[in-house]
Amino acid sequence: MHRVKKISDETGLKGKYVLLRSSLNVPIVEGKVVNQFRIVRAIPTIKHLLDQGARVILIGHIGRDPKETLKPVADILSEMFPVTWAGLLKGDVVDRMRLELKDGEILMLENLRSDEREVKNDKSMAEELAAMADVYVADAFDAAHRGHTSIVGISSLIPSYVGINFFMEYEELKRTLKPEHPSLFILGGAKFETKMPLVEKFLNSYDHIFIGGALANDFFKAKGFEVGQSLVSDIDLSDSDLLTNEKIIIPVDVVVDGPNGKRTVTPNEVFTEESILDVGPETIKLLSLYTRGAKTILWNGPLGNYEKGFEEGTEELAKLVSESGSYSVVGGGDTVAAIEELGLSGQFGFMSTGGGAMLSFLEHGTVPAIDALKTGVVDK
Predict the structure, then answer these.
(1) Conformational region of residue 52, where left means phi above 0, alpha means psi within -120 to 50, and beta covers everything else
(2) Backbone region of residue 284 per phi and psi (left: phi > 0; alpha: psi in -120 to 50; beta: other values)
(3) Which of 141, 158, 250, 259 sits 20 to 30 Å CA-CA off 14?
């Protein structure tokens, strides 16, 4: 990431206002944070800034609803650091709190998406945020693929840096672009139309690609199998070379649910009223042949409908990857959640805070946040 400065190399921050964009979009249930993975990864940059005596203005987003609040995240951070919760994004109250901020303290603002200008890369909002600080730090890799105001709009206005988490994401994901062999890329989730270019690209660099999750349904459909009520993409693979590519692996058995209850069947035994919701045990056995000898495993997305409780395939694969001895990189909220639930985090090479951002970086070798930093005032 040449021409982009790292905040970890910067020591002259005492008394300076630092606008820190962190990954704070965590799952919240009944007002409580239920997974702190992204918060934990935000801590090193926060700690570095506070240790340097910076006055940190912490910003982030939460969820998709503009009415959602970052207050539960502020409650957790306030147990570790001197945090003042603004409860607002702007206004006289926020201005006063900013002026009262002391060296080594944090003022945390409300959900950025409570302002509709955030998702529009609005210049006026970027100028308002930049005016609050002397320095901007990009550390929210989870949103780095978004062309939003706080991600791409500020770095051209004030001196800008990349945070500790962001730089680590960049280095680890860059490493997967040139894998050690044998290599295995596991891709789950849905929306194959957005992921097809990535699959085509990685066929050139990875020895095998396993297609799981709802993505596999597109292959079943293209092969002429009944997919019933299963989720499929807006794409027709029936004439695609991917169907016959020997590097591509798809499930050999699936778990379905319907009027007859849950069944494990081969892909050509699905009834019209059933939905494919997970991979079966024979598929896990097949995958074990590839994970066992792999030197590099890259994995993004669950193998089943995690939100509906079809977790078994994803969890069994997590165990296989953790035992493989490979350099493993994983991303996607459900995938990371499964690994954490099993207590296997320490047995993976790297866990990304990004899902879509990870896929975007893997496909393009960059993300809008990096491009904005490279063209910002920090490079001049």
Answers:
(1) alpha
(2) alpha
(3) 141
| pLDDT tens figures, 240-276 | 999 999 999 999 999 999 998 999 999 999 999 999 9
Q: How many angstroms separate the CA atoms of 32 and 92, rounded? A: 29
The CB density around residue 29, as the number of other CB atoms within 10 Å, is: 9
> Can you tell me the distance from the alpha carbon of 50 to that of 47, in angstroms, rounded to the nearest whole number?
5
Beta strand segments in the chain, E: 17-21, 28-29, 32-33, 55-59, 83-85, 106-108, 135-138, 160-162, 183-187, 208-211, 248-249, 254-257, 263-265, 275-279, 296-300, 327-331, 350-351
Mean pLDDT of 124-130: 98
pTM: 0.94
Closest to 279 in 3D by CA, of 299, 259, 306, 258: 306
Q: What is the pLDDT of residues 346-370, one digit of tens each?
A: 999 999 999 999 999 999 999 999 9
Instruction: With CA atoms as reference, report the closest residue to 249 among 309, 344, 182.
Output: 182
Contact status, residue 310 vs residue 278, Cβ threshold 8 Å: yes
At 227, is the secondary structure helix, strand, or coil? coil
Q: What is the pLDDT of residues 171-218, one digit of tens each?
A: 999 999 999 999 999 999 999 999 999 999 999 999 999 999 999 999
Mean per-residue pLDDT, 141-149: 97
List the domains of the chain with CATH numbers: 7-166+366-379 (3.40.50.1260), 178-364 (3.40.50.1260)
